[in-house]
Design brief:
single chain; 154 residues; alpha+beta; Ribosomal Protein L9, domain 1; Ribosomal Protein L9, domain 2; 2 domains; four-stranded mixed sheet; 3 helices; elongated
Length: 154
């Protein structure tokens, strides 16, 4: 019969729990894996209080960073990007508008902190002149929307 011990998790662990949870694990698992890697500490009143305090500080920090990202969402929502491409008589482009084109236009507007992988292009390929919306994924689950105007090159 294996004995168990209660530990307080210091990290989110799949199939075990999240930060601050008090879980009962086998003594060897705690001694050989969780404790040496700093993923948990032995459950005592002081350790539980310490983890809860750290959790509260982390929540405040995340709330502050999220509010800063919400301001970025509002700023990006005001941005309209113009891209001029060669097009035929009927408004069909010779080629298409890619995420690189959008990224270059954003950089021209002075927005350098957007990564190409974070752009969410429309589901259909942009091959016509018109107005579109491009999403920008930001941290903390936020998404900003940038207006995209595709015009013909004169």
């Amino acid at each position: 019969m294996a004995s168990t011990v209660e530990v307080v998790l210091k990290d989110n662990l799949k199939h075990l729990g999240s930060i601050g949870d008090v879980v009962r694990v086998r003594r060897g698992y705690a001694r050989n894996f969780l404790l040496p890697r700093g993923l948990a500490v032995v459950a005592s009143r002081g350790n539980v209080r310490q983890i809860e305090h750290e959790k509260a500080i982390q929540a405040q920090r995340i709330a502050k960073l999220r509010s800063a990202q919400e301001e970025v969402v509002l700023e990006l929502g005001k941005v309209t990007v113009m891209i001029a491409k060669e097009a035929g008589e009927d408004g069909k482009l010779f080629g298409s508008v890619t995420s690189n084109d959008v990224l270059e236009s954003l950089k021209a507007k002075g927005i350098d902190n957007v990564d190409k992988k974070k752009l969410v292009m429309p589901a259909e390929i942009i091959k016509e002149v018109g107005s579109y919306e491009v999403g920008v994924k930001l941290p903390y689950g936020l998404t900003a929307t940038v207006k995209l105007e595709v015009k013909t090159r004169a």
